[in-house]
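Support case: NAP complex. Customer-provided input:
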Amino acid sequence: MKIKDAVVFVTGANRGIGLAFAREALAMGAAKVYAGMRKVDGFAEPGLIPVQLDVTDADSIAAAVARCGDVSVLVNNAGIAEVGTDALDASIEASTRRIMEVNYYGLVRTTQAFAPVLAARGASAIINVLSIVSWKNSPFLTAYAVTKAAAWSYTNHARLALQAQNTAVVGLHVGFVDTDLTAGVDLPKSQPRDVARRSYDVLESGGLEVLADEDTVAFKATLSSDRPGYLYPEA
Ligand SMILES: NC(=O)c1ccc[n+]([C@@H]2O[C@H](COP(=O)([O-])OP(=O)(O)OC[C@H]3O[C@@H](n4cnc5c(N)ncnc54)[C@H](OP(=O)(O)O)[C@@H]3O)[C@@H](O)[C@H]2O)c1
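Agent response - structure generated as follows:
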């Protein structure tokens, strides 16, 4: 699957990692790049086609699918996060429900709605923007991490379901990235453009998983060790 000449649709493409995915697709020679976003008013980015899409709203997804019937690469990027204290935080249930609606159910809805469009293409792909916290326990991000673990599991199931129609499903895992989402975080961060580029490179080389920074590579390596990072977080 090549990005050159592909028709790419990115959810949450008005800013952050999504905008980087959209811009990078254009830079790599995509034939068309649809930039999905909740509010299209005022969005003006040369080469990108703004399309109204709220992943919590099935009607808006259906309208986007009807308008963008030529998509060959879907990037499920739209997401939100909330910060808490730990797994005993009284707000966990409500917070998890709110985040699930976007990060998990939103991704499921968008995947299912675009699947027939992708099936109509000779080869197609979906990139799901997950996180290092799909695997890693990060106490103040408990609710968010649960949604990314769910989205990771769905990614693996969707990959099986879409194999027969020749749609590759790629999971992207990454630690902190320099966007509005991490504005209050004073730790090393990847650049959105690098994350998008690495993801497309993996897709183009036939890979199914992107580990976009050194921390994520290192954490993933502990999973099959005798001291997995989720059991021994200090290791
Ligand atoms: N930044 C990080 O450190 C990091 C690390 C790992 C994974 N991620 C993941 O990367 C993705 C993008 O995050 P980001 O860092 O770029 O965050 P961001 O700068 O806050 O951007 C989030 C994007 O998602 C959109 N969005 C939120 N709710 C939506 C909905 N219901 N329907 C459609 N779009 C919606 C936002 O649109 P509005 O402008 O309308 O709010 C915005 O375009 C998320 O899935 C996030 O979990 C981020």
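The mean pLDDT is 97.

Case will auto-close in a few days if no follow-up is received.
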